[in-house]
Fold this protein.
Amino acid sequence: MLVQTIHFPKSCLHCEEPPCVPVCPTGASYKRAEDGIVLVDYDKCIGCSYCSWACPYGARELDAERKVMTKCTLCVDRIYDELLPPQDRKPAYVKACPTGARLFGDIKDANSEVSKAIRERGGYQLMPEWETQPANHYLPRAVVSVSGRDVGMDVETGHLQMPADDADAPGPVMET
Ligand code: SF4
Ligand code: SF4
């Protein structure tokens, strides 16, 4: 069996139906109506961790020192900062990626860069069976290399596919 290490970034996915919100007893966990970003109001948070248990993606982390729940904010201050040039109004992880592998935009705009990428490259949501409808999508790699051999990726399922002449070779059992 071939084994390959893959790096899989997983932050808050800013779900359309976030189970972390209704379980919060204080209203600290909330989803903004204007842009769908899910945030924590630290002034209301009592650190009970209910939201963390409700999140199926493990996207929340309790700050034990401050006793508040933390998670990705989508750099909400940065993306609306009018002092920044428009091209810099993106989350820090998007700006920092040296290869431009991470995209940022409005998935409700069918003509946005992210909507086109999802449509044309088979973007998918994590664990759709939870019906959380994450805003964040993942784009499968068209071709990856496993032990020096190019392996295709089924864009429908995200499963790796061995080339036909390697059909008898031990294959990776890996999904994205
Ligand atoms: S990924 Fe988790 S923390 Fe983020 S909105 Fe969805 S359920 Fe909530
Ligand atoms: S940890 Fe904070 S945000 Fe999470 S459920 Fe408790 S009060 Fe709400």
Summary: The pocket of iron/sulfur cluster (ligand 2) is lined by residues 23-24, 26, 28-29, 40, 45-51, 69 (CB under 6 Å).
